[in-house]
Amino acid sequence: MKAVLLAAAFLLPAAGVARAEPPATPALRGGPHDFDFEFGDWRCHLKRRLHPLTGSQDWVEYDGTSNVRKVWNGKANLGELELDGPAGHLEGLSLRLYNPQAGQWNVTFANGAAGMVTPAMIGGFQGGRGEFYNQDTYGDRAIFVRFIFSDITPSSFKLVQAFSDDAGKTWEDNWIATFSR
What we know:
This protein is mostly beta strands and 181 residues long.
């Protein structure tokens, strides 16, 4: 399975890697309304690690807005992200499609700077937490990517992206976003 997650599009070129199984996780079967909490306008604060998988503790921060809306009568949703910070301006567009047969979401992302749509990242929600996984490359290394939605309330939620270069044994956070309204 090959997919790329939302935040990775800002950090990585879209590139394939040899097929491998993602880390073992519980089956996440959600429903077509899993992302309904995110509909509407949000303020976003992003903290991004500048040099992932190097041991670096150098981070840069951004602030901006996000808007998520329902499309196709709820069979999908579209998210727009616009952020500014010392490292520049970020724009992104995320399309999430629900697969009712699998009970999972396929999440794709387009980075405003790259002008490309990434392959789908696969996952779902269970117990108020969304987990999405993917394989990609970072530099010359094959990695796993994990994206987690958590701390979901009507007025806030958190997104954390992490990379693993040891087949999911350990993870390093590199994208921490908090949303509020």
